[in-house]
Amino acid sequence: MSMMSIRAATPRDREAIRLVEEHAFGQQAEAGLVDALVTGGDAVVELVAEEDGQVVGHILFSRLYVQNGGKRFAAVALAPLAVEPSFHGTGIGGALIREAHVRLKEAGETLAVVLGDPVYYGRFGYTHARAAGFESEYQGEALQALAWGDAPETGGLVYASAFTALAA
């Protein structure tokens, strides 16, 4: 019986991560986003899931800031989360999220933001109610947040520059 394992991504994983992203999303944009975030030094936590030595899942949390008046608060953005289509429904995505959350909390992070399916991400504690006070071009039901501690509830979300390039 094979065992899925989760570990920190390494430079040797770059091509495998690119393939997982392209297969999961059916396009190259998310893979390009990952490359740009990593190259730009914006990755905070990046994990891969392996099954029988093959990378079958990937998650990346990048630096995000909440700008409120003259203050800037460090937070993280979950994007992207990808699992090889043949492994959808096996719990790999959830395992990646839970392990990343453990590592983020241990590192002292207190706020994570995601743009995604409220039903899916709601299972991990993300809510739109927690993100409703943030100003963002992505504001809407899919914008959700999760706080583990003292974190702002209002302010403008400032994503890494790689996201601006993605939207262009």
Topology:
Layout: E1 4-8, H1 14-25, H2 29-39, E2 43-51, E3 54-68, E4 71-83, H3 92-106, E5 111-115, H4 118-122, H5 128-131, E6 134-135, E7 143-147, E8 155-159, H6 161-167
Helix pairs in contact: 1-2, 2-6
User: Oligomeric status of the shown chains?
Assistant: single chain
Return the CATH architecture: 3-Layer(aba) Sandwich
**Discrete helix count:** 6
DSSP summary, beta strand count: 8
By secondary-structure content and strand pairing, the structural class works out as: alpha+beta
- What's the end-to-end separation, in Å? 45 Å
Mean pLDDT: 94
Measured by DSSP, the beta-strand proportion falls in 35-45%
Can you tell me the CATH superfamily?
A: Gcn5-related N-acetyltransferase (GNAT)
How many domains? The number is: 1
Which ranges are low-confidence, i.e. pLDDT below 50, for 5 or more consecutive residues? Answer: none
CATH class: Alpha Beta
Helix share, percent = 25-40%
3D shape: globular
What name is given to the CATH topology? Aminopeptidase
Spatial extent as radius of gyration: 15 Å
Most strands sheet: 8 strands, mixed
Q: What is the string of helix and strand elements?
A: EHHEEEHEHHEEEH
